Amino acid sequence: MPASMPASLPIQTERLILRRPEMADAPALHHIASDERVASTTASIPHPYPDDGAQEFIAAIRDNTDRDQLNLVIQIKGSDVIGMAGFRPHEGHVELAYMIGHAHWGHGYATEAAHAIVRHVFANSLHDVILARAMTRNPASEAVIRKLGFRQTGVADVDVPMRGGVFTSSFWRLERADRHDG
């Protein structure tokens, strides 16, 4: 049985702060989500991104932080908002999710933020399993998942209405017992 998340936010890493989004973050998040290179790597970001999409998203998730769902802004310490990371309920477990603005790809920020989310879930809940998935045409996302110690459980074609088609996706699983870093 999952337990409630304690007030252990924001989460800080060596370079990042993961915190609840604020309406002031909307312009940065809109800029990131509006980039087709970012949107096309997800199953949930529409493209073109609506003008009020970031404000609506923040309003919808800002107060929805519990044991089964958490959406946090990724901010470089002392600098810019560069994306989002969190988890959501999926098939009786939680599923890892993240997005990083294109300008910040290739710097290890996705791995650092996703690692913080994994540690947060295992430290603050009784969830013993975290799931992840990625479109196989996004090998960088698969690399992040692999670096975190997830093991691949399958590959399948998935209908992605937001992308208007079927896309091959890889599915991943990480169990609490497999973690060696807390």
From TrEMBL:
Q: Which SUPFAM superfamilies match?
A: Acyl-CoA N-acyltransferases (Nat)
Q: Which key words are in the record? A: Acyltransferase, Transferase
Q: Which Pfam families match?
A: Acetyltransf_3
Instruction: Name the InterPro entries on file.
Output: Acyl_CoA_acyltransferase (IPR016181), GNAT_dom (IPR000182), N-acetyltransferase (IPR051531)
Transmembrane regions listed in the UniProt entry: none
Q: Which GO terms describe its molecular function?
A: acyltransferase activity, transferring groups other than amino-acyl groups
Q: Where does the N-acetyltransferase domain start and stop, copy by copy?
A: 16-178
What family does the database annotate?
Answer: Belongs to the acetyltransferase family. RimJ subfamily.
Instruction: Please identify the protein, giving its name as recorded.
Output: N-acetyltransferase domain-containing protein
Q: Which organism is it from?
A: Croceicoccus mobilis
